[in-house]
Specification:
The complex is a heterodimer. Chain A is mainly alpha-helical. Chain A folds into two domains: about 15-165, Tetracycline Repressor, domain 2 (Orthogonal Bundle); about 170-310. Chain A is built from 15 helices and no strands. Chain A is flat, with a radius of gyration of 20 Å. The N and C termini of chain A lie far apart (about 70 Å). By secondary structure, chain B is mainly alpha-helical. Chain B is about 50% helix and about 0% strand. The N and C termini of chain B lie far apart (about 85 Å). The longest helix of chain B is centred in the middle third of the chain and has 33 residues, at about 10-40. Chain B has one helix at about 10-40. Chain B has one domain (about 10-60). The chains are: A mainly alpha, B mainly alpha. The interface between A and B is medium-sized, with 18 and 16 residues.
Chain lengths: ~300, ~60
């Protein structure tokens, strides 16, 4: 065996491994929701500043993802879904991921402050802290409500985008926050229903593990019902309008129907069709969020032509 | 003079260094662009340059002839 091969086997990271530390799939959702926050906010901001803001909001989210991977490396190696992440795969050393995450967090927050304002940067810093410390280090392994409170971290990007333009927090940005915050539990619990084994093995107290699947089905229905007023309510603010309301009504009816179907089923039925309904609802929940924010965007785009908004 | 055989590891290192280089160049371009935008958006900027410039004096303080 040559020396080079021996080093190669020690798992030297490639560029892509560092990109993977940033959780690019989560980042794409952050980019989209932050972009909507920037575009629907009242006021003008230079397109270059807008682009820079979104980039650094996404970078901050990615940095918190790297910190999460550093902290969770011990359970990521156990779960099938996460076993190929750079740290459990042996490509990136835990210390490297920590340094990478901390450095990028600092760069993202400082650059957002320089590009926009201190409120937006402060919210981004709080989001990183919330995801890395409150969710990853504290809640994730200690309570089955981990997803509920931890969901706040994913809900901040549109609020940060809004703050980057207006320098303020408003009812509209709070409702965009609540839309993602209330959507997260039913979305993740639908996933947990058919990924239960992974969480059980890792000892993560997901609701499915601690309270069973029947309780999780009840929770999905209750949280979906609780989500509806926020989703519909946003339609009556300055970022909503008739288009948004129609889209939201259809999506909420669909999501509620899906949650109802999940609630009515038991494990025997679910195992018989390999969790087909749960998988459908999980996929629909992604569409639900994407189209809600798409509708906000449509309202903002139609406004100059006299159609959007109220 | 002989060259060592290229190993997969060298390609990976090159990829990493090249990627990092691109990221740094993009970051410099971004900071430059941001600076240009910020400077252009503050409006007309004038300062004292050792010559009397009446347009810098607030209107109400201009002595009437």
């Amino acid at each position: 065996m040559s020396d080079a091969r021996a080093i190669g086997q020690s798992g030297e990271a490639g560029f892509g491994d560092y990109v993977a530390l940033l959780k690019p799939r989560v980042m794409s959702l952050v980019v989209f929701t932050a972009l909507v926050g920037v575009l629907v906010a009242p006021g003008q901001v230079h397109p270059f500043v807008a682009m820079t803001s979104i980039l650094f909001i996404a970078l901050g989210a990615g940095a918190s993802g790297a910190l999460n991977m550093w902290w969770d490396a011990d359970i990521d190696v156990i779960m099938k879904r996460t076993a190929n992440r750079p740290i459990p795969a042996g490509k990136v050393q835990p210390g490297e991921a920590l340094g990478f995450g901390l450095a990028l967090s600092g760069i993202a927050v400082v650059m957002l402050a320089l590009a926009t304002n201190l409120l937006a940067a402060g919210l981004l810093a709080f989001t990183i802290f919330f995801y890395a410390v409150v969710y990853s280090m504290w809640l994730k392994r200690s309570t089955p409500q981990n997803i509920v409170i931890g969901g706040a971290a994913g809900a901040f990007p549109p609020m940060i985008g809004w703050a980057a333009v207006t320098g303020d927090v408003s009812l509209e940005s709070a409702l965009m926050f609540m839309l993602i915050f209330m959507w997260t539990p039913p979305h993740f619990w639908a996933l947990a229903l058919f990924m239960n084994e992974d969480y059980s093995k890792a000892g993560v107290p997901m609701l499915t593990v601690t309270h069973g699947k029947k309780a999780t089905r009840n929770h999905i229905l209750v949280y979906t019902i609780a989500l509806i007023p926020f989703a519909i309510g946003a339609g009556f603010t300055s970022i909503g309008g008739p288009v948004y309301l129609v889209v939201s009504a259809v999506l909420n009816a669909g999501f509620l129907w899906g949650a109802w179907r999940i609630w009515k089923r038991d494990e025997v039925q679910a195992e018989a069709d390999k969790y087909a309904v749960e998988k459908q609802v999980f996929k629909f929940s992604l569409l639900y969020l994407f189209l809600h924010f798409g509708a906000f965007l449509a309202e903002a785009a139609l406004k100059p032509y006299g159609f959007g908004g109220w | 003079m002989s060259f060592r055989e290229e190993h997969e590891l060298h390609k990976r290192r090159f990829g990493r260094n090249f990627g990092l280089g691109l990221v740094l160049v993009a970051f410099v371009a971004l900071v430059f662009g941001l600076t240009v935008v910020k400077v252009m958006n503050v409006g007309q900027v004038q300062g004292f340059d050792h010559a009397v410039r009446p347009e810098l004096v607030p209107q109400e303080k201009v002595a009437k002839p």
